[in-house]
Amino acid sequence: MEGGPVEGGLVLGKVFHKRLRPRAHAFRYDVPYFCVPLSRQDWFDRGGLVDLKNVDHGARDGSPPLPWMRAILARYALDQLCDGEILLLTLPRQFGYVFNPVSFWFCLDRESGLRAVLCEVANTFGDTHNYLVAHDDGRPIAAEEWIEGRKVFHVSPFLPVEGVYRFSFAVDQRAISAQVHYGDAEGLVLATGLSGPRRTLDRAAVLRRYVANPLVALAVIFRIHWQAFGLWRKRTRFHPRPEPPEEMLTR
Description:
Blueprint: E1 9-19, E2 25-37, E3 50-51, H1 65-75, E4 86-90, E5 93-94, E6 102-108, E7 114-122, E8 128-133, E9 147-150, E10 164-171, E11 175-184, E12 187-199, H2 203-211, H3 216-233, E13 249-250
Parallel strand pairs: 8-13
Antiparallel strand pairs: 1-2, 1-12, 2-4, 3-5, 4-6, 6-7, 7-8, 9-10, 10-11, 11-12
């Protein structure tokens, strides 16, 4: 961890997917992300052409996301360890629209050490699920470490629900990285990641990255369907959508 508090900003993200089997498939896109501290509720519901909405995260009822996240940490006895800032890495609404395949909630301690990460996952069917990632003993999550968790939620129709995720994260003043690998009994199936340098988030940055490029939000959903079409053309096995899990969170 680089010295000093880890604050909010803009992340010039590079998103990549690399599918190894049963059909090889890969892509990489540049996507600008907001990275905002949840202690700053004034980041949310400001209005305007580019906006973060409370209703898009957490309880999704319009309530502030910080109390919701703190309650989850307390439920899993992580609240005393995660006694610092919580950063939300996500896409804002652009001209009223957003689709976030995954948002990451980075839960820090007072020394800016990463203790837990909530992965807030959505699919194109309107379902959402949360994965809480932390070491069993609560120790800080170091860069290059991998933490395993079972997959329980349907994301892509070209992957089964069954399997295992492996998570790796790095957060400091200069950059953010989140990697999620999916595998089965035979090994790695899909490697995904989001990483990028951190920049100041101000009016000029919003104008440059979002207002001057009005298709950022729409490009996300278009690219998802375009890549799905590519997998379909390769005759990748199709998995129908099952009912989502009753529990909204997996630890």
